[in-house]
Amino acid sequence: MADPAVMAGGFSAVVGRSGGGKATSSPAENYQLARRRTLQVVVSSLLTECGFESAEKAAVESLTEMIQSYISEVGRCAKAYCEHTARITPTLSDTVVTLIEMGFNVNTLPVYAKRSQRMVITAPPVTNAPVIPKALIAGQKRTHPSHIPSHFPEFPDPHTYIKTPTFREPVSDYQVVREKAASQRRDVERALTRFMAKTGETQSLFKDDITAFPLIAARPSSIPYLSALLPSELELQTLEETDSSEQDDQTDSENTPGNNLNDDPGADKENSMLPPGGVVPSVKASEENMIDNPYLRPVKKPKVRRKK
Amino acid sequence: MHEIKMNRKKDKGFESPRPFKLTHQVVCINNINFQRKSVIGFVELTIFPTVVNLNRIKLNSKQCRIYRVRVNDLEAPFIYNDPTLEVCHHESKQRNLNYFSSAYTAAVSAVDPDAGHGELVIKVPSELWKQGDEMNVLKVYIEFSLDQPKGGLHFVVPDVEGSMAERGAHVFSFGYQNSTRFWFPCVDSYSELCTWKLEFTVDASMVAVSCGDLVETVYTHDMRKKTFHYVLPIPTAASNISLSVGPFEILVDPYMHEVTHFCLPQLLPLLKHSMSYLHEIFEFYEEILTCRYPYSCFKTVFVDEAYVQVSSYASMSIFSTNLLHSALIIDQTPLTRQCLAQALAQQFFGCFISRMSWADEWVLKGISGYIYGLYLKKTFGVNQYRHWIKEELDKMVEYELKMGGVLLHPTFGGGKDKDNPTPHLHFSIKHPHTLSWKYYKMFQCKAHLVMRLIENRISMEFMLQVFNKLLSLASTASSQKYQSHMWSQMLVSTHSFLKSISNVSGKDIGPLIKQWVDQSAVVKFFGSFAFNRKRNVLELEIRQDYTSSGTQKYVGPIKVTVQELDGSFNHTLQIEENSLKHDIPCHSKSRRNKKKKIPLMNGEEVDMDLSAMDADSPLLWIRIDPDMSILRKVEFEQADFMWQYQLRSIFLRYERDVVAQEESILALEKFPTPASRLALTDILEQDQCFYKVRQGACFCLAKIANSMMSTWTGPPAMKSLFTRMFCCKSCPNIVKTNTFISFQSYFLQKTMPVAMAQLRDIQNLCPKDVLNFILDLIKYNDNRKNKFSDNYYRAELIDALTNSLTPAISISNEVRTVDNLNGDVRLILEEITRSLNMEKLLPSYRNTITVSCLRAIRMLQKNGHIPSDPSLFKSYAEYGHFVDVRVAALEAVVDYTRVDRSSVELQWLLNMVQNDPAHYVRHKILSMLGKNPPFTKAAESPLCNEALVDQLWKLMNSGTSHDWRLRCDAVNLYYTLFGLTRPSCLPLPELGLVLNLKEKKAVLNPTIKPEQGPDTTEMTGNTMGVHIPVMGFTSSLDEGLITMETVSSVSMSSGVAPPPQGLKRKLDSVVGPLGSSPPEPGQVLQEEDSSKKFKIRFNTMEEDEIDMESPHDSQAFIHHHLNILERPSTPGKEPPAVDQAVLSLPVTPLPSSFSKESTSSSKHSGHHHHHHEHKKKKKKKHKHKHKHKHESKDKERDSHAFSNSPASGRSVRSPSMSD
């Protein structure tokens, strides 16, 4: 007999799909459909036994469903009982207990089985149990270590628990790498410049074929020195990497107009030297930043007396 | 000439040419309008009269509009007259350069502050001068404005959105030599020192940087502007005052807090990096001069569209913003440092120490150049220094041999000498403003070379002592605040300099000075030798060429170094009048068999393979004047093996001197042998060798390889070398990723491909594998891991592609099309296209790659691979591209103009010369046209026509009056195109009617009548139309204003060349009255038509009675006669040759070309008429009865004076006066 677990799985699979009506014909489905058809035959013969001459398809279908559920439940429970007693194959007693549990009078079973008017139905056509597709075997399956009894389940496939490299080994040949980098860059550049040339204004070196070597048109800029002198962002990155340490805090001490508007012309000068008291600590702290340069001094307010 | 100079003793003290001493000047600029590009302000000069009855004050001022002048609060009348605005007036018959040059010199002399002259003549109110002998202080207060100045101040106002500060608008002063008069009235002389107070009110978002100490910055009442107050307590010449205003970012030097740097917005990171070593330069100079930096602060300002890269002013320098660079850039770094060092050297000598006269300029340029050289030596090494000296010497020698000599210390009007000490030049060297730019550069070059010669003579220690002495004298004098007579100690003169030298060193350097300073030209030696085996003597023959232009005879010692087998020996030979041959005894016996080491000059001993040598001779090599202690060119014949030893010596350290190495490389070009090849290859591999020598060796090797084409074995020259040095070990066709850590290798890596591309095969094509090699270099170039930028390297690879180009096989002049493009060229073109396009997306530093691509495209055109077409270059030459790109594009257009003889492009270029906002670009166009002229005087060209002559003439005559340098460039170009005499394409000027053979009709002489043949009229019309409005000339035909011609009437009437020495006196006398004595309204003009001369007579009064004192509203006066500028008549002396020309041509009383009348007589009456009309309109004028002092002995002067009347309506020409 088939493995109950598989059976149960098979049924539930059928149950699950029953509404789908999918007319597929994979081996697994064929197998299940065959079982289902057998159940239908069983239901029909029982109905005939009970004296029905015909039945609606929906009724047959419902009864089939019910019987399938019942059998499935018996299988499931029997398996549970057997596992409960640390076995893997259900025995008769498991099934009996199950039936009892489900409220079935087991004693009536032999009588019922031997009733005279029962119909004999043909065995379901032999269909091969569906072949479980083999899991991808990656690497050698590990055998059980000595302390694990051999009846214990086998280790799963190694790919489920070990790191499996999924990429090809990179090409490490220097020449090829350089070659690739070079042609890649060239391709990108060419594509980019062609795109720019196609989408913008161009100048041409030839009169007969202005598309031959398109040059992006020269466009004057209002402040041409900026782009010519400032390093591009790309270059800046490299620059930052190399001399991020060189940053000095000059900018902090930049002109801060209106900061300390002071009418006394001498005041700034005194500030920059060490004033007698009060703010000494803070000045000391920033002494190095305190550069006495006339361009850093605050701008003075106009003198009022001059007003006319 | 020789003896004269020895009378230099005479000029002991400094004698001011002015009857007053300026002690203090206030410059206050209240308003700077960037939108209108205008400036308003006033100046106040404090002067002490040094004569009794100082009645007029001459100041310099150009293009300023002057509203009022007050002397001690009294309104003072004044006359503004700038003869340089239009040099030769509109008599246009004269088109010869001789005439122009002398007129121009005269014009410049007429306002020369060093002679006490000026454009602005102020009459001191009589109340003040009548006070008698009390030497009172006079305060001269002048209100002025500048509207769209064309010179002196340059506004850069980018056309973008935002406020002026956001747009990065800025303004700065500039000029060539003393040009401060362009932006405020002053005594624009390097010898008139005074203290300064400078005030600039600018927008609150801007910074005004100027000379001296910033005392305070104060907001205006509306808080929208602020005023920068500067005080410069050290007496300084006006010419050393500058200003720049802009939204600058401020960087206080982290090492020296008194030093402040300014740059345009967004460039601060670059500024930080570029300025990070300035303190080292400071330390260096202070140390060698044992003198503190003389000013209390120093400012550097980096501006866009700079006139020159570096210009130094008192306590500040203005640089081109293009000198700034980031840490990524290799090539620009030394250049920027050099510029900084130059600027700083000029702070000491040039700004702090000024000069007495133009003739002493060489001392300042010499000293600053010399100490700059010391800095180079210290920072960049002895090799670099010697290389530089050699380069400068070669450059200068080449120039002198080509153009005739460069005279460092010109003397004029002295003794029997002709007025012009340099008759070989087409310009006068009497004034800095008449000099060709190139000449001035060579002048500076020679000056520092001569200083080096002096150092050789007296030792560096003494030299520095002399400098220290000059500096300490000056700083003592500068601290004498109230003793302005002491200030002349701050002026250096040739005399005082030489005296210091003799005091300090006790040596007589007279002969040296006589040879190189008082005399122009260089020495040219030819050497050859023979070895006399019997006597064991080297017979050396040194000949000189002192007859061709630019050469002089040398008599004196000369050093010869002979390397023999037994060692190196120096011999000092005496070059004398008649001795050519010198016998030098050899020390070594010829001993080929014994293998001994050979001792060298530097004490080392080396082994040499002597198999190449002549078996009998112990000589290895000979060098004449190895220390470059003579300004000379040496051509020397040596057997080739000698050069090889010299060269390979680097490898073996036989000869360490880079100069010797470079000379031998040059000489080796003539010896294409396997031995030379080996020697050069050795050098390339030797990384101790100076990189510039190795770079030179690359090019030499390429040349040798080409000469050895048939016998050359192995791969193309340098290819395997390059592969070994710069390519990957595992894959030799791929270049390593860039690192550029070793700069020596970097420079070699850059140069080798460029040199390799010069290789040619038997078909005279660049070998295929060389081209592929270069293309691979470009392809595999990988800079991702590099901390430096590779833009210069990539640019040089493009240059290499350019070098590989050879002329296309032309198929009967067919049009170049894409289809018949040669395969290799297609590859090259593809690279160029891609690189150029990539530049648009990722621009490189200074757009070096674009520059190289443009050159490459021009070369493709020139070689016939692609159609020749200037339109691409013209678009890149437009204003708004980076200046390097523009110059490269313009160079291509200039080249196109020459090759295709295109008058359209020539016109386009000349238009740009007149209209471009960037002064540097204008200058560059003219100098490139001069270097690569569309045609020359020697050859016929369809481009050479009358219209062009007129256009260029106009350009130099009046179109470039705002920029001395540009005017001299125009003169140069005119000289290159037409020569000194009247251009041959012009019709003869004698007749009123001219037969135009081309058009087969007779027309009125165009110089007489502006309406000429239809064709020409159109041309002239064009040029006038474009030219005049733009340049702001108000003189147009329609206004009917007339220019009176008085030029050269002196020489005319006298009919003989002026006596020597006459020049100065005459100018004095002529210009004196000119400036201030206008003709009486009732003057009478007479002319003698028959003789084609005319005399003008008018009533004159005594000068003293000039009616200028009658009070009048000077402002109104100006407004009404804004154009009073007159012609100073500029009747300078003319060299005899010119006189002849002038006299023979009927030009002189040149009729004005404005007049519509065709005969000169009617023209003059017409003029007269106008004159009156003009007056009627402007009644005020009648108030001034300008009277002219009549000096009866010089009748001809009257005619000059006449033209100077403010009433003559001539004033048209003053831009400042145009309302």
Automatic annotation (TrEMBL), chain A:
GO terms under cellular component: transcription factor TFIID complex
Location of the Bromodomain associated domain: 31-108
Compositional bias annotation for Acidic residues: 240-252
Biased composition (Basic residues): 298-308
One Pfam family this sequence matches: Bromo_TP
Segments for region (Disordered): 240-308
Family annotation (InterPro entries): BTP (IPR006565), Histone-fold (IPR009072), TAF8 (IPR037818), TFIID_su8_C (IPR019473)
Keywords attached to this entry: Initiation factor, Nucleus, Protein biosynthesis, Transcription, Transcription regulation
GO BP: transcription initiation at RNA polymerase II promoter
GO molecular function, a single term: protein heterodimerization activity
UniProt cross-references to SMART domains, sorted A to Z: BTP
Domain of life where this protein originates: Eukaryota
Subcellular compartments: Nucleus
Family affiliation: Belongs to the TAF8 family.
This protein's name: Transcription initiation factor TFIID subunit 8
Lineage, uppermost ranks: Eukaryota, Metazoa, Chordata, Craniata, Vertebrata
Gene: TAF8
TrEMBL record, chain B:
Ranges annotated as biased composition (Basic residues): 1164-1190
A GO molecular function held by the record: RNA polymerase II general transcription initiation factor activity
UniProt GO cellular component terms: transcription factor TFIID complex
Keywords: Nucleus, Transcription, Transcription regulation
Highest taxon of the lineage: Eukaryota
Places the protein is found: Nucleus
Transmembrane segments: none
Main location, first listed in the record: nucleus
Domain Transcription initiation factor TFIID subunit 2 TPR repeats: 640-1003
Gene3D superfamilies found in the cross-reference section: Neutral Protease Domain 2, tricorn interacting facor f3 domain
Compositional bias annotation for Polar residues: 1201-1219
Region called Disordered, residue ranges: 1052-1090, 1149-1219
Biased composition regions of type Low complexity, renumbered to the chain: 1152-1163
One of the GO BP terms on file: RNA polymerase II preinitiation complex assembly
Pfam families: TAF2_3rd, TPR_TAF2_C
InterPro entries listed in its UniProt record: Aminopeptidase_N-like_N_sf (IPR042097), ARM-type_fold (IPR016024), Ig-like_TAF2 (IPR057345), Peptidase_M4/M1_CTD_sf (IPR027268), TAF2 (IPR037813), TPR_TAF2_C (IPR057991)
Ranges of biased composition (kind: Basic and acidic residues): 1191-1200
Residue span, Transcription initiation factor TFIID subunit 2 Ig-like domain: 521-638
Family according to the record: Belongs to the TAF2 family.
Protein name: Transcription initiation factor TFIID subunit 2
